[in-house]
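Same chain as my last thread, 280 residues:
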Amino acid sequence: METHNEFWVNGVREESVSAADRGLEFGDGLFETMRYYQGNIIALDFHLRRLEKGLKRLFFPDSLSRVLSDLKIVIEHLTSLGSENVIVRITVTRGVGARGYEPDVSQLVNIIIKASATNSSPIQQSLPLTAGTADFRLSIQPGLAGIKHTNRLEQILGSLEKKHKHLDELLLLNIDNIPISFISGNLFIRESKTLLTPILNSNGIEGTRRNLILSQLATDCGYSAFERKLSMERIVSSDELIFCNTIHGIKSISRLDDIQWTDYSASRSLHDSYIQRYLK
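reply #2:
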């Protein structure tokens, strides 16, 4: 549970931005949610690569050096306090511009950093999740696929449906009924010694923990990992379902709708490899 929040705007302790900020008016921005643990941001390079990709995709000015400079201020502050376990969110907006949709491409961006103390441990793997299939469908927009832009209304709708259904998570399908991801994390299925995750070239977010599994952790644990177009039939017949995101790391799925799983071996192995690589 988050217990305390601190904010920085463009490297200065501040809790507000202009009401004319394009991030507020149009959702014209990107964000990264990261875990600070014992002096470091876990897998920072993966977050920076995704943020840089998003900045280029949305034609933002090159802002990565400013992001790093502001983040350094926050990390030094957290370290000076002796903080051990904090959720750090960086939001980059296009700042204040003229009225209307068309942005001023030379506009200086706003960099907003939020640090939230948390009691959840990145080391301890929590209990498996219960999930269902969402009723609403994700839109298809290749121009925004993969990046973590600030338009998250689809995830909000999914969260409201999840709450109504009293579940931990919902599996989201697109308008062609292709499974894409969970509300707040990516999906992997296991078929014997192979891990598969949906292709995200039309929608969805390329999660940092998803990319860790694809590039490092699967090999560590003796699995092959690939991006594939998945079907619901293939998902429900799989040997194991896995959820991953920055906040919770790698978790097992025990139930999806009426189908249950009891083999969590890959999830546990991936989690152990994640701990050894990044938290030891």
